[in-house]
């Protein structure tokens, strides 16, 4: 691999994944990953632009930011790209009235959306809300539509909480896709439109931006397909086998966000 | 299409799907499809061999047969090929100790199976048992195995109950396949091994056998790939679009089992 100086040359903006990079979630609210609070603070003191780009679809942006602030992170709502507000916008633009299979924690993001007489289904990480009954209800709504539209907030396979690995929305998206013989539209990483939204909100071109994440497919592969660079941290859902992934090779692997920020402050634009 | 006489010539044995052909299931036990009780009786009085071949994995064979007998069907346990006993046999042969994600109604079929320290996961149509917690538990068992083995009792997309369409085990199989990056082994239609088991138990060669089912992929496509003929009934989960399916074309479409039996008694071997 080339030297870090070469790999990080010209980086002007940094997209940070949240879960597994800043903190590990959990029933108690989760815990910050050691060194990440300080790393974010140092990054924001630098000349680099910073934006948070999450696939968390279980909490409203306000709740997520509040939780991170209580853990000591320097973060505000306006700095976060998250799938629920992005979806809400799409629904309004296309005149879609969703049947919502989502967690109560994120319901406030859809307060302004008409959900009567649904003409599509929106699924997010519903957690315990993924009961058989709720899944069957969403399935029946789709089967009753002439042209079923399924929008999924991310397509993650699983994420890591303090208690262990947790099935993510992608698994349930696949279940509905298979049952109905359809393909979902994904709002969230690794969808190119979603990365482009985050880049636009940060005001940096893809070739000048770098993604830092723990998900080899969603964060690393997705960002690279958009022309960005990407570093994988060895925290969160990282598994050693990711470093020998058959399809995706990160521009670098680092132990954690603190190491990534050290390297960026040393080698990205001064 | 050729005349019925030509299409049914040389048929000596009939495999009958149960749900959607004999009866529509439901919370109250379901109801027989009009004409099916008499059709089975007439078939069994003929020279044709008859066997029931189901993917029902929510009930033990004993409970399923009891339910059908109470509805008036002439059927006994020894005449039924069903996925739970077939799986139980496979587990014993391969020394597999399953984590079971199944309905309580079928648990008795696994009474003789060691489930301590699991080295595989078996999923069946668990119905309400497909809670997030149960799915996540099965997922974690698979992720902890060096070589994850997932056995699925059928891979149906949905079935029909009196209350409407119901998500079947296939959707949940796909969810676990995606989350773990693995492929399940299917015990049930349309697996060729499963059809061959039913044919062997009936004592008829594939080219002399015909399948009667309501599932265009699982029953019709699966049986045809094994060298059998297959008729689709317009009952159960049948949808009009099945008759224009891009990949699978039945050897005939009939309104219900009664019509299928009329044709068979007229045109199959006398």
What topology does this entry show?
The structure is a homodimer of 270-residue chains.
Chain A: H1 4-7, E1 13-16, E2 23-24, E3 31-32, H2 36-45, E4 49-53, H3 61-70, E5 80-81, H4 83-94, E6 98-101, E7 120-123, H5 132-144, E8 150-152, E9 158-161, E10 164-167, H6 169-180, E11 185-186, H7 192-202, E12 209-213, H8 216-225, E13 229-233, E14 252-254, H9 257-267
Parallel strand pairs in A: 1-4, 1-12, 4-5, 6-7, 7-8, 8-11, 12-13, 13-14
Antiparallel strand pairs in A: 2-3, 9-10
What do you see in this structure?
2 copies of one chain form a homodimer. The first copy, chain A, is built from 9 helices and 14 strands. The mean pLDDT of chain A is 96. In chain A, helix 2 runs parallel beside helix 9 (257-267) and helix 5 (132-144) crosses helix 6 (169-180). Chain A folds into 2 domains: 13-55 and 189-268, Rossmann fold (3-Layer(aba) Sandwich), CATH 3.40.50; 94-187, 3-Layer(aba) Sandwich (Rossmann fold), CATH 3.40.50.1000. The relative contact order of chain A is 0.19. The longest helix of chain A is centred in the middle third of the chain and has 13 residues, at 132-144. The first copy, chain A, is an alpha/beta fold and 270 residues long. The A-B interface holds A 126-133, 135-136, 139-140, 143, 157-158, 164-168, 170-172, 174-181 and B 126-133, 135-136, 139-140, 143, 157-158, 164-168, 170-172, 174-181.
